[in-house]
Design goal:
With 341 residues, the protein is α/β, with parallel strands linked by helices. 38% of the residues lie in helices and 7% in strands. Helix 4 crosses helix 13 and helix 8 packs parallel to helix 10.
Length: 341
Amino acid sequence: MRRIRQWAYVALFAVPIALLAACGGGGGGGGGGGSSASSPPGGVRLQVVSFGDSLSDVGTFTPIASAVGGGRFTTNPGQVWAQGVAQFYGDTLNAAFTIGVDHKLSAQGGLGYAEGGATVATPANLNDFLVDVIGNVEMPVNQQVSSYLAAHRSFNSGQLVLVWAGANDVLRAGSPPAAVTTVQTAATTLAQIVGQIVQSGATHVVVVNVPNIGLSPKGVASSDGGANLTQLSQLFNTTLNAALQSNGLQGKVIQIDSYSWVNQIVANFKANGFAISNTAQACDPTKTPRDTALLCSPATYVARDADQTYMFADDLHPTTHLHALFAQFVEQQLIGSGLGH
């Protein structure tokens, strides 16, 4: 979700060698899915394919971030929600591509195409870390889907396709009135991409709407208390719903309302096992390189159990516990649709 700025690269490789050795490796990145012969927790075995941004990134930046114990945009070494859903259906979700110190995208054979920083369809921002330091290798979601189809030609009925995108489009849109067109265009384009996925053979497609970004620590700390980000999140979601309906897709996909879910979790955070809601972050800004969850590890937590007691890792990304709860929420929605016990 967050754009990783140019100076993050400098900070990462300026970390003392002793710290790099102490922190060890981060999250997994390569290889395809694998599963045992036993019945999975979901009762149905499916291969999971994922498209999106940092909320679903399972390890694109691991070759770089593992040097400081990072690898995913959460409280590392924890998993993101898409990995939990994959395990529920007897699969292991690994990164389709990784970005290493050679500044190149390297195909890994996994089916986790989501990449941190990705928008729905617009190219990388010219000031983005990925462009300035690594090169223009960021894959918007439309390119992620095209990359999958180039390698695999089609989807099939034995797959569960997860699509969660749009948060970066909202974050980069600015303020109305100009932001309105930006957000609406991104949402209608996402519906078109979903249509392409369905037309290419996918029969089990999950479409997650944008969470209430105004309730993130970044939103809460903004001058308007997150009002603009909340408004744009709502606009994206209403536009996406309308576009899915007008394209005849609502009956062909499973829609997950992350916006309402986040609202509910924040309002009832203690009942959901959190000590801190959206007013602070689990990764200590003074210890985590450039204050990004991608580079967060147990050594930089504000408390030993911060990955379980805080909702947010940094000012935008969920902690391990929040990801796990969202995975469970999605799994229950999928079971309700007939995909499971």
